[in-house]
């Protein structure tokens, strides 16, 4: 018995040694894969916890709160351009495109969650692409390029929200004030609401945002159904049109589902990140339903001359004012969410592994406010420089959303499962789906950029940096 025990012990020792060696290898691999700007580790946080200042809890969102934040972020600018998209491409092609882009964006959202589950330290696209870049010695370069590309995209979207804000204010005030003045006022409003450093309170504001855009769309639907205020009211099932108009329509549909640049950051503030699929399902069901309802009904009743943003389709100025007034929360809060994610990335780059990252210190407070004001000022420059709503959305989508929402998720999956692409039928189907994601992102980027630049260059209706009203007549 004693010999048997000795033998057993002798056999266990090398096994344990091998396991320990493997664990060390795994730890080394994890350390190698972690981005240079990953969040502080538990050990680092325990050291920082001894510093002065109130500790900030970033894990504040339940799955339904996260879903509401995502709805508020997504169902804002996109829904306002979709009726004019149907007027451009025709009713049936428009519906098909909305459904296809909805499916692709849902699947890509699941892929992003799978990637973050594999690499929990990922907080943004810069971190995610750095993980891949390390395998070819380009990790730091990829972090810089894609991290700042994410911020640039979000600042462009913030510019779109400021542009929509000026349209709203001009509509409400009968264009009594210079448009640039309204842009400055908007800058102040958006910036102040971005001063909190977590999404906890934004999640509550997002409920008001969701209600406001839903009510505004329903009011627009009711008004146009009664009065058919603009155009002949005729509809076209399909249309033949040139390349620029067709692909600009595609990019405007894609931008309606393009909130993916914020997904990593929002997941990072979930109490239970494993609940992400619930939040994503809530988002996609809500936005696809609202998009189809608004796009089809407004286009059918208004006809080919439906304006963009579509909230200006109401018959009377009084009704337009009421609708735009109700839409203010969604215009503002959705922009604030993008501003939060952009500011958070910049802040983390400045204060990584310091007490200022996790505590409310005087320096961190001043720095956060300065970053917020700075990015909103930059977004105002963009809004006033490209004052054409659809063309600005198309340019944003072509440059950035094409990759964050479609191209990069496809690359992430192909990289995670390299060597196992065809191990069974299900995996092969996923391989095909992710190749389609990549190709979708690539085509939207190249062709959409061409179409958007051409559209902006030939636009004659508006001029940049002008006091003239941009509201519908």
UniProtKB/TrEMBL annotation:
Membrane-topology annotation of the record: Multi-pass membrane protein
Q: Name one GO molecular function term.
A: L-amino acid transmembrane transporter activity
Record bears the keyword Membrane: yes
Query: Is this entry keyworded Transmembrane?
Result: yes
| Recorded family membership | Belongs to the amino acid/polyamine transporter 2 family.
Domain of life here? Answer: Eukaryota
**Compartmental location:** Membrane
Q: What is this protein called?
A: Amino acid transporter, transmembrane domain-containing protein
**Matching Pfam families, A to Z?**
Aa_trans
Q: Which residues cross the membrane?
A: 63-82, 89-110, 179-196, 208-226, 246-267, 279-302, 322-343, 363-383, 389-415, 431-453
Provide the Amino acid transporter transmembrane domain boundaries: 60-453
Q: Where is this region: Disordered?
A: 1-44
Q: Which UniProt keywords apply?
A: Membrane, Transmembrane, Transmembrane helix
- Biased composition, Low complexity: where in the chain? 31-40
Known PANTHER family for this protein?
Answer: AMINO ACID TRANSPORTER (PTHR22950), AMINO ACID TRANSPORTER (EUROFUNG)-RELATED (PTHR22950:SF479)
Query: GO cellular-component terms in the record?
Result: membrane
